[in-house]
Amino acid sequence: MNVIDLSKTSLREVNSRLQKLPKDTNERLWKLTSVHGEHACAVGLTQPIEVQIDGHIGYYCGGMNQNATIVINGQCGVGLAENIMSGEVRVKGNASAAAGATGQGGLIVIEGDAGTRCGISMKGVDIVVGGSVGAMSAFMAQAGSLVVCGDAGANLGDSLYEARIYVQGKVESLGADCVEKKMTPHHLAKLERLLKRAGIAADPARFKRYGSARKLYNFHVDNVDAY
Amino acid sequence: MSSTPFYTPPRWSATFDAHSVAEIHRAAQTGIYDIRGAGAKRRVPHFDDLLFLGASISRYPLEGYREKCGTDVVLGTRFAKKPIHLKIPVTIAGMSFGSLSGNAKEALGRGASQMGTSTTTGDGGMTPEERLSSKTLVYQLLPSRYGMNPDDLRKADAIEVVVGQGAKPGGGGMLLGQKITERVAKMRTLPVGIDQRSACRHPDWTGPDDLQIKIQELREITDWEKPIYIKVGATRPYFDTALAVKAGADVVVLDGMQGGTAATQDVFIEHVGIPILAAIRPAVQALQDLDMHRKVQLIVSGGIRNGADVAKALALGADAVAIGTAALIALGDNDPHWEDDYKKLGTTAGCYDDWHEGRDPAGITTQDPELSKRLDPVKAGKRLANYLAVLTMETQIIARACGKSHVHNLEPDDLVAVTVEAAAMAGVPLAGTNWIPGKSGM
Ligand SMILES: Cc1cc2nc3c(=O)[nH]c(=O)nc-3n(C[C@H](O)[C@H](O)[C@H](O)COP(=O)(O)O)c2cc1C
Question: Which of B80, B231, B260, B340 is disulfide-compatible with B253, CB 3.0–4.6 A?
């Protein structure tokens, strides 16, 4: 394991080292210590390495990740793993607003709670939240799945496209064009697989599924009340 | 005497003019606002309201064809390890694949590359074709983040964070179902055929402090190599420019209300934002107040048509201009050659603006394979290159007449205004006086 002390090495150097690792590197395990809320940490990684971050981290941690596995032993700031393409980003604590924003693939696991706009504009990523999510989560979400083991704040799934939402607890309110949908065996199996992949213990049968009513997909004057 | 009957000709109301009456009828019949492409069509104070003074006894001109007048621009000198070098001060503005056909995007790349300038992606990601055809390509990071991916980010020569557009400051993109073909839908991760409304706010930052961190992230991902632009619609140019500088921009792109769009509500296009003429001086003032003029470069756009417009924008303090609508026209948009087809669409060459419908006779603002074929990317690219060459030569003609050996040496002192409004907005004297409205003077 390579250990980098962030009090001694600049963030630029850390990112650069991790980003420039060759494809066949055997330096696959990394640990960052003395972490103090740095922004844009471990962003733009491309290789299947594992980075463990010991401490609370700032904005956009794991941004645009490809292939790497990043584990944060702490809390994280806004835009966790924004636009993640593949790989996995896991937070042991809570995540701030816009976690997983626009993520295109891969897996994000937030073991604690997530703030507002979790999964905003998501485009294929799977997000599993052990706790609850704030208001406006999955706003304009296009593809992928958002799993919430706790409760969801107001306006869940507003202006949703084809993303799937599963919530175990209470939903404060649904946003425009977001409706509860039947949980089919197919969806149940998917949810079960997702929870397993995320390593979060929960009974899929207790979740409800939400998705787009697809009424706002084309402009129509009768829909103006929806906004 | 017999009284002759007196005929009073029908009189149009200046308020309820033909257009307003037709719009009320249309609204009443359809129940939906008008959506269209292009920029504001009404007259607003513009570069035409300014004149150059040229040389005189106190100023010495340069020989038209002999003496050198530089036109090159370097963008991104503040933080980027690899600033962009352009041969001419005219760039091609961001226009998405989706709003434009693949052939049109390729033609833009070809024409711009021939003339040594850049093109820009748009709200829909980067296509391999445009990366191949554009020597210098600016990659837009928009609120929608359609097709956003780090591989393309690293392939780009610069990154443009789009906060807003002059045609619709505060509005998101729009692409109607007719143009959401399978390829476009796939690039945007959307169902085929839906009316796509892009987000108007970025998903992961909300104010200038967050934007600063966002830019730091983009730089960290791209090894601090690429210039980062911030594009704003012209509304509060002084503050937006100052905040863009604070957020760490290398380049500020300022787009006036005349700026084109692929599709937006007409009411938005015509009534939100300010003319580019009114926006340049406050933006330059902000740069000067921060000691950043020429260190953070300023690109302006919105209704640039000819070399005089370019020269005036530069004289007011911009480093370069961007063109959208004019570039499409140069490719062949609104060409009278297609008049029969324009008539069938209920319009005429020069007025066609239903770019959102995807039925463009010239094959530019369409995804229809048959229509797209009408545009030959090689020939259209050559037309654009010709047009860019003319813009550049016209700019040089004016600069030499004002005695400048580089187009960037043009300055507000070279200009006067022919209307009081333009004098106030551009901060130059009304012609024949030394009166700048709003400033002290005689
Ligand atoms: C067809 C079309 C598509 C456009 N798409 C985008 C876009 O995707 N992103 C963007 O920032 N601006 C877009 N714009 C605006 C241009 O980048 C630019 O701001 C504007 O065209 C400049 O004004 P002009 O058209 O008067 O030259 C588009 C404009 C047109 C005409």
Answer: B231
What's the CATH code of the domain at B225? 3.20.20.70
**Residues A99 and A132: beta-carbon distance below 8 Å:** no
Of all residues in chain B, what percent are helix, strand and coil, respectively (each to 5)?
A: 35, 15, 50
Q: For chain B, how many structural domains are there in total?
A: 1
Q: Would you say residue B173 lies in a domain?
A: yes
Radius of gyration of chain A (CA): 18
CB–CB contacts below 8 A, A to B: 102
- What is the number of the ligand 1 atom nearest to the C-alpha of B120? 17
What integer best gives the mean pLDDT of chain A?
96
Domain with B371, as residue range(s), is 36-410
Q: Is the CB of B327 under 6 A from ligand 1?
A: no
CA of B242 to the centre of ligand 1 (A): 23
Our answer on whether the CB atom of B334 is closer than 6 Å to any ligand 1 atom is no
B263/B27 Cα distance (integer angstroms): 18
Global confidence as pTM: 0.96
pLDDT single digits (tens) A100-119: 999 999 999 999 999 999 99
Q: Is B262 in the pocket of ligand 1 (CB under 6 A)?
A: yes
Domain assignment of residue B28, yes or no: no
Distance B69 CA to ligand 1 centre (A): 29
Residue B417 inside a domain? The answer is: no
pLDDT of residue B32: 87
